[in-house]
Amino acid sequence: MTNISNYLVTHYKGSYRIKCEYDKSTNQFQRKLDGTFEDIDCYIDCYNNIRIFYYGKSILEVYIPSRIRGCNIIKAIENEFNDNIIFNVVETDSEVLFHFKTKHMDELKKYLRPKTSGSNISPFSSRNLPKNKNYKIPDKELISYKDIVEKIGRKRILDISHGTNNFLKSLVTKSNTWEDIKADMALKGLSGRNYIHSIGKWDEYINYLKEMCGTCE
Questions:
Q1: Does this model's pTM top 0.85?
Q2: Residue 177 pLDDT more than 90?
Q3: Which of 19, 69, 162, 209 has the fewest CB atoms within 10 Å, measured from its CB?
Q4: How far, in whole angstroms, is CA 10 from its chain's centroid?
């Protein structure tokens, strides 16, 4: 990773949720020519869509996508601190940016409200990519799936996850590679189970799980 992006991961991963911009046209993270992730756009994710970037030289840059909220935050900070704890303030009609030294993070976090949930998640985890929450498998088609989950019990629940992944890999062909499948899933924002249903492979998937888990009748 670059030094700038690595600073956030090194100093704040485990404390705050760190995310990275992704390509909206593919719903995947950008990659460099060598195949590694393009990490220059990593940021600390805060409530109200506020983002904190590492600017360099022990300076953090705050982006607030609301002029009113940004001005209120600046006013509150200035009321508490007499010194110039923030600097390089920029205001536009719709947003506010300012800088502060990394040593003041603990003092300013109550105003910026960085998220702590998911603080140990990698910025490039698929959990940070958009999900299609509107796709629903009909209840009548979920009956067989739920029956399998109930029969295997909690101790073997990971078998379902492994089985789903293995079933998806069984769909690989020369013209539809594993990378193609993963890219299609990411673009559609679907989990493995929902994706399988969306491409019309649900019955095959259920039979596969039954055989794998020894629940065939």
A1: no
A2: yes
A3: 162
A4: 18
